[in-house]
Amino acid sequence: MQHHTLRPFVGQTSSKNGNNPQASVSEVMQQAARFSIYVPLRLLALMALCITTFTTTAYADHDGQVHDHDTNTVHSEQSLVTTANVSTSTQASTSNISTATTSSGDAIQQFVAGDFSKRQAMLSDWPGSVESLDSLVEFIANDELYQGNGGQTYLLNKEDQLFTYPDKKETDDWPSDLSQITLTNALRSALIFGQAKVKLASDKPAQRLQAVEILADNIDQVDPAIITTAAANEDSAKVQKALTALQARIDFKNGDLPTQIAAVNLLADSDNPQVLVDIESALAADGLDASLKAALIDAESSVSRRIEISTWTGHIFTGMSTASILLLAALGLAITFGLLGVINMAHGELIMIGAYTTYMVQNFFQAYMPDMAGWYLLVAIPAAFLVSAIIGMIIERIVIRPLYGRELETLLATFGVSLILMQLVRMIFGAQNVEVSNVAWLSGAYQVSSSLVLPYNRIAIIGFTVIVVALLVYLLNKTRFGLFIRAVTQNRQMARAVGIPSARIDMMAFGLGSGLAGMAGCALAQVGNVGPDLGQTYIIDTFLVVVVGGVGQVWGAVLAALGLGISGTVLEIGIGAVLAKIVLLVLVILFIQKRPQGLFALKGRFVE
Fold this sequence. Notes:
By secondary structure, the chain is mostly helical. The protein folds into 3 domains: 108-185, no CATH class; 202-288, no CATH class; 314-594, ABC transporter involved in vitamin B12 uptake, BtuC. The protein contains 24 helices and 7 strands. A hairpin with a 2-residue loop joins strand 6 and strand 7 (452-455). The N and C termini lie far apart (80 Å).
C-alpha cells in the first residue's frame, strides 16, 4: 500500500490568462471611419471581423480544442474505465468525488477491509451489484479509494478533500495512517474478469455488451469456454454478434489453418481498430500460407474501409453539433442585425452570460436541492434565456437606442460593452474557468459500432437546436409579434405609419436575440470550458454565419451554420485549427464579393 501525506491542500483550477486580444480594434475602427464613405458597410464589418480573428488567434482557446476533444470521444477507448462505461467520473459533484453509485457500499467496504485472499475471493464471486463493482473499478482507476488505520473506508479527491464512505461526507478528522487501496497484478486480473463475469450474468444487454468489450481488451487471457457458454445462452442479436467476433479473434490467434481462414473471412465485416491491428501484425509475419495471406489482404482492405467510414461519420457528426451551437448563437444575431442593422460586438458576451447562468443554477441545485441536482439543466435553459434577454434589453435601451443610424459608433459602443461584461465576470467569478458538469442523463455515449461512438450531450444539442429553430420559425411566421418583427425589418417607416410600436419591437426583438445567445451559452457549457473569454471564441464564427446566410434570414443561417460547422471541422482535421479558420475567412470574403446579399436576400421595399 502507498501511504499518503497527511497535509491537505486546496487545489486550484488552472487557467490561461492573457492580454486582451482586441485592444487594437478601436484604433482600427477610427481609421476605418475615414474611408467608410467609400466602402460598403457589410464589407467594412467583415474586414473588422477578419482583423479581430487574427488578433485573437494567439490568445483564444479556439473551438478546435472542443472538436479535438470530441473527435477523441468518437473513437473507441480501450481503457478499463471506459469499457466499464463509468464515464460519470467526468461529472463534478459538490465534493468533486466520482459520482459512482453507492447503493451497495457494504461490498466495497468489505473489499477494503479484507486481506489479499478475501479480496480475490470477492472479485471471483462479487457479492454486490454490477453498479457497486463499477464503482470499485472507478474509485481504484481514479486513485480515490483509501483505508484508515481502523479499517474505515475513505475517498480522497484530487483537491485533497477527504470524505467518509459510503455517505460521502467531507471530514477534517484525518486518520493517522491513511493508505491507498492498490491492486497487485493478480488482483487486477481478478477484477477485470470478475467484472466481466458479473456483467455477463446481467439481464441488461448493455451490461453484457460491456462484458464482451472487457474480455476483448484482455483477449490473451480469455478462456474460450466462457465465450462458448455465453454465446449459447445469449438472446440479444447485438451481443451475439460481439461474442461471435470475439470468438473469431480467438480462433484466428489459436486455431489451425482452416479455422484461421474462416475467422479472417468473418472478421472482414468488422470495423474494430484492434481487429485491423491483429490483421496487420499477421501480414507482417514471415512464411504465411498463400490462401491465408490472400484472405488477410482482403480483410485488411474491408476493415480499413469500414473504419474510415466510421471515422468520417464521427467527424461529420462533430461538425453538425458544432454547427448547432453556431446556429443557436447566430439566430439571435440574425434577428438583431436584420431588424436594427446593429453590429453587436457584445453578442459573444451574452453567450458567456448564458453559460455562467447555467453554472449558477447548477451551484444552486447542488447547495439547496442536491436530490434534484441531476435535473438542473431543465431550469438552466429558461434561466439562461431570461437573464441574457434582460441584459440584452438593457443594452438596447441604454447603449444602442441613442446611436441608431450611426453604425460605426454602435459597433464601438457594443465592443466597449463586451469589455465591461468580461471584466465584471472576472471580478465576480474570477479569471479561471469554472466547471459545469454534465447531467447524468447526458453522460456517456451511444455506441454505433466499435469505431463510432456518439456522445449523448452532442446528440442532445442537435435535437435542442432543431426544437429552437422550429419554435423560432413558428414565432416569426405565425404570431402577431413575429408579424411586427418582419414588418419593421422590411420597412420601418411604413410599419410606424400603420401603428406598429417600432421602438418596443426593437427592444423585444433585441431581447429575443440575446436570449437565444444565452441558450447557446447553456449548450456550450455542456461541451466546453466556461470562462470570461468564452464569447470571444465564437463571436467571429457567429458573424460569419449571419453574413453568409443573409441578414435576418433564419433558413439562411441554418444552411450557413451547417456549411461552416462541417467544413471547419473537416479543415481542422487536415490543416489544423488556425489555418482552417484563415481558409474559411478567405472563402467567406470571396463568397461575399460574388453574392453580397448572402444565401437568401431579404425581400421587401425599403424606405431609407
